[in-house]
Amino acid sequence: MRREPARGLVQHLPVIFPGLMLTVFFIVPFGTMVAVSFFRRQQGGFYVPDFVLANYARFLTPFFGNVLVFSLYLAIAVAVVSLIIAVPFTYLIARSRRQTQVIWLVALLSILSLSEVIIGFAWSTLLSRTAGITNLLVWLGLMEAPQALVPGFAAVLTGMVYQAMPYAVLVLYPSMVRLDPTLTEAARTLGASPLRAFFTVVLPALRTTLIATLIMAFIFALGSYLLPQILGRPSHWTLSVLITDQALYQSNMPFAAAMAVFLVLVSLALVALTMFAGKKLEA
Amino acid sequence: MPNTAAVRDKGTNQMTKLTDISISRRALLAAGATGAAVLAMPNVLRAQDRSLKVGAYGGYFKDSFDKNVFPEFTKATGIAVESVAEPTGEAWLVQLQQAANAGEAPADVSMISQTSMLKGQATELWAPLDAAKINNIDALIPTFINKYPDDRIAGIGAVAWYVTLVSNTDVYKEAPTSWAFLWDPSNADKLGLMALVSNSFLLEVTAKTFFGGTKALDTEEGILKAFDKLAELKGNVRLWYRDEAQFEQALKSGEIPMGQYYHDVTGLAIADGFHVRSTFPKEGGILDSGCWALSKASKKVEEAHLFIDFMSQPSIQALVTRKVGTAPTVKRSLTDLTDAEFAAASSEIDPIIPRYDMQVEKADWLSEKWTELIVG
Fold first, then answer.
1. ipTM summary value
2. Which residues cross the membrane (chain B) (predicted)?
């Protein structure tokens, strides 16, 4: 059956609502942010409408450049590690019995109900010297004395991967389940080992999904500002942390907006690059 | 346990996140409320002849004042207090300012931080107070009378609190005596300090400890010298915290055994049996405070003066110290606080008073230098 294009107001109605929501809750706030990023800051907490580039100029220093590079690096690391863990994990779940699948998925979804604050505090306790997992290792005789694993880069990465994992699995799961089992069977019949079949058949078949997962985990990690504070040292603070500082503590909305706009542009560019690279691979 | 620190300060991230959206929402509510008020007017008049809207930091402070202090005022004067929860940070200042421009006052009298007092002064937001109508003005410690540059009174001290040198008693058997101990090489990777130049007041601490007083921060050169000295401290700091609960937990467990923290909250932790102590170093604790200030758009000038005068009575200040845990804003000798009650909230060692003028005038420069110092 051929789909007729929608005609008239009545047929367009179903699209109007999401369109309206998108305008009200995304386009308008984002537009406001772009506008504010050009406003003139008045020291003392206020700003006046204007068109100045000072907010962007202030941002273009080696210091903020370093922070930006670190933020991107951290987000990429989180995305890659999440993917590396989530792909085999989801593959195994998708191959297991229905009941087992449900249990795993519910457990994963329950992580989503935890706030970032709780995740941060839980990990900082788990990795602490006084109450952390190293005490367990000492008890097992594997370590001399308990050690603090927090704050540090590994702690930040762990916390953020923990947080991004459920999303990665949720994006991967539908494609993995729907993946035609005859594909791997054919590969096996032709003599490929299970591992080889996974790498040469399953992964290429899921390329689009893998890229989508990577991008989602990356964007998700880029916005994180609580975990780097709770689990990291100042050198592990992301640009989002500095944006928060400017917006909430320095009341410098124009500068915060300029940084946020810049961050959005850079991440959009990276996403475009990834998708472009994905297309190239396919061709 | 009520976390006073979280409310009086710039607030936890969770709390402050809300303030962004509250401006427009509040404006909307205010517009709605004005409409509703017109209809409800006869009722209000019948219920209470006189009333005053008072803004207090939402959470622990507002709850304690609602429960222990405001009812006393109503009993004494017959003026009903309608308390309003202020959002943390500077959002309240912005709201008061915008409302005042429209001739509205979301609260008549509000608790205002010292930096917000200065910013409000710049736009004449605070109605000058009449000293003649505040009988208890002589009882106040002069620091707590906030004045315009031309000596008009902009605000009167409402609550005051100390940030002191705190330590875990299991790790440090002896109490430290000076802020200089933070720089001691033996403390490598052991300290928890506040993450912002505008709430840690560590420049002031450095100036008083090493450069003879906060006057050393008068010049940019002096400030840079203090920054250099602070840079030496960096290796000792394990945690630069924005969220008080994070440091408090680490201090109690001994994970991060020393740092700067609120004197009163540490007292509560001691009362709960945790092995921590709060020390007033010989250079003094950091004394931060909030003022009662009257919006220029308020029409309740008479009631506001009665309120501020009432709050400045030594007996009420003693009550606030006992019930809310803040330091009295009046001279100690005028109150009937016992040594233990006074020590729980304050000290007679000359305090370090933050250079709010510097914090406001050089805010952007300071925050940039500071961030580069601790992040770089």
1. 0.83
2. none
